[in-house]
């Protein structure tokens, strides 16, 4: 029987703490998951990026993609170097896909917009792929979404005027492969346009 007065010996390297993912410190009170090829480490890193960056940083970047690193750092309360490093983390992780200018359609003469609903004749893989590739090749289709149920697709089309839209419809849209039916409706007004994703 073990003497209760003697301390219990523990094997080297053993602890009572749960096995957390190793972390590296990155400033006071902050830690980021260590870079690892494991799925757990990748998940931990995505979780960290979402928790640390989304509440403060992403809204600023989404609202104004031309913010300088210095301006962004001031908004989120970081020094420039950590801010720049974490912004690059967001880009590398795919949370920030890119930067673009939001153009006023009226300024470039493309303020006539139509919504086109497309129903396919068949929905086999070849038909879907061929249709989507053909849609992507039309520059005036500014957005295309596949839907559940009918219709199968929603297309947003921007042209100069009704005559230009009719020409596009006859020459390109009506000839899209695999299409059974197209229904169009004209946009009267954009109430919410290019809004950033909610927090």
Automatic annotation (TrEMBL):
PROSITE patterns: HTH_ASNC_1 (PS00519), HTH_ASNC_2 (PS50956). Residues 1-38 are annotated as: Disordered. Keywords: DNA-binding, Transcription, Transcription regulation. InterPro entries: ArsR-like_HTH, AsnC-type_HTH_dom, Dimeric_a/b-barrel, Tscrpt_reg_AsnC-like, Tscrpt_reg_AsnC/Lrp_C, Tscrpt_reg_HTH_AsnC-type_CS, WH-like_DNA-bd_sf, WH_DNA-bd_sf. It comes from the Bacteria. Residues 62-111 form the HTH asnC-type domain. One of its GO terms (molecular function) is sequence-specific DNA binding. SMART domains: HTH_ASNC (SM00344). The keyword Zinc does not apply. One of its GO terms (cellular component) is cytosol. This is Transcriptional regulator, AsnC family. It comes from Streptomyces violaceusniger (strain Tu 4113).
């Amino acid at each position: 029987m073990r003497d209760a007065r003697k301390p219990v010996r523990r094997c080297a390297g053993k602890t009572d703490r749960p096995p957390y993912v190793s972390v590296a410190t990155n400033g006071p009170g902050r830690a980021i998951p260590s870079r690892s090829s494991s799925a757990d480490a990748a998940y931990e890193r995505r979780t960290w990026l979402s928790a640390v960056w989304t509440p403060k940083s992403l809204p600023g970047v989404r609202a104004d993609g031309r913010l300088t690193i210095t301006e962004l750092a001031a908004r989120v309360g970081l020094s420039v170097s950590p801010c720049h490093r974490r912004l690059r983390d967001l880009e590398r992780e795919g949370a920030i896909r890119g930067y673009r200018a939001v153009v006023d359609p009226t300024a470039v003469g493309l303020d006539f917009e139509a919504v086109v609903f497309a129903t396919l004749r068949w929905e086999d893989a070849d038909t879907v792929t061929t249709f989507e590739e053909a849609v992507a090749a039309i520059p005036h289709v500014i957005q295309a979404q596949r839907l559940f149920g009918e219709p199968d697709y929603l297309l947003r089309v921007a042209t100069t005027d009704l005559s230009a839209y009719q020409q596009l419809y006859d020459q390109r849209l009506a000839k899209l492969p695999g299409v059974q039916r197209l229904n169009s409706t004209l946009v009267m007004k954009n109430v919410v346009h290019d809004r950033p994703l909610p927090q």
